[in-house]
Fold:
Amino acid sequence: MVENYGQSSSLILRGRVITMEEDGQVEAVLIEGGRIAGVGSFEKLQERTRGEPKILDLRGRTILPGFIDSHTHLIGMGLEEIRLDLSGTQSLAAALEMVSERVKGSAPDEVIIAVNWDESLWKEKRAPTKEELNRIAPKNPLVLRRICGHQAVANVKALALIGKGWKRVDRERGILLEDVCLNLDDVFPPSRDQLLSALKAAIKRAHREGVTSVQDMAKPSHLRAYQRLRQRGELKIRAYINLPFAEGERLSELRLETGFGDEQLRLGGLKIFADGSIGAKTAALFSPYRGGKIKGLFLHSQKSLTEIVRRGEEWNHQLLVHAIGDRAIHQVLKAYEKGITSSNPLRHRIEHFELAREEDMEKARRLGILLSMQPNFIGNWSKPGGMYEDHLPRWRENNQFGLIREKGLRIALGSDCMPLSPLYGLRSVVDAPFPQQRMTIADALRMYTWEPAYFSFEEGIKGSIKEGKLADLVVLSQDNFEEGLEGARVDLTIWGGEIVYRR
Structure:
């Protein structure tokens, strides 16, 4: 049950308050009216309150600004809780058995989508085939989408429902790449009720992880779900909604720009894909992937991408460009170099930046480009014997957070919902296998609080614990981090003065 102290009375949290401001660490924080009314010593805050405040003595546990996830797919994650999750399978055979059981319990012609398979973790080390899917689902449209979201396999019944206008659909082998994989909800649309249920489930998960704000990569139908949930008074998260670039023209006609909205629901930027993923071998590289001649693919020409940047500037929209491979990052930076205003006032971004070369790190710094990166990817794939080593000649140069930080670039951390867990991401980057990847706990925490607030132009209202800012907080089980984050758990999540999660 939600416990609301922030709207009608005073709440004092007493513990180890890490403010992310110059004062660094204080003893207590006072919440009134859904905002932070004071920070400092417990005694002085008691003196400032009217009447009898509610006091939560956390016995030295750590209080932080609520985590802000700079790159999520919140409704997509919620929908995946409805769909069949293959992430825990250790073999292709086991995955196909799970799918077969789901098919047996489904009505004929019911569309079945299974998600999150990762062949790098399977003993067979290969993807499913169309023929295997045809065999286990002769009467149902069936799609199995890889964990990266950039590759899928479909059976013949599902292929028949995918219109001829979709690109990168290999109907002979049933392989789907990029656009159609990333837009399965357009091909097989969920109902309005399914979207609302998915969003509510995802918000509940976010609360368990200490996340109070998200920067969501969404669709117009997702934005409508956010709006409906808000109208019902059930939207207990702050969302910065980034829409596909294809919506830019319509938004411009309506005179809607990045930042439109309020403290709870705000229009963000426009999302563009420059390349694919490493797992699907569609991220654009200068050198071939291991064992072949494949170098990935560009989703736009240099001329087209430069024009996209020009139009984003014209529409006064922040741009969020997905670029993973070194060649794609280089292409995107060339487009930004030609198209953006000096000093980057729109705070244009690159999402992921996984395989950047040092010369392009330098260029990104010079242009003032912001980097939204996912430390989860280190934990998932960067250890020796993992997917990066299997796929890449330069595999040790992935996700170089420490080096990028040393060069003076601004980084915000996000999860990409792989999984939605700031603590998993923080542990991954702090304990990364290679020195150039690692960051200190202090730097990493800042990149999950203060920096994402800056990326969404909201540093004045959240991202730190300061008088006047929103009372969005997370309480961790540890009283210090000197020995690392391994034992840390989210004990309490507070959103606008409401305790929305208690472990």
Q: What stands out?
A: The mean pLDDT is 94. The first strand starts at residue 3 and ends at 4. The chain has 19 helices and 22 strands.
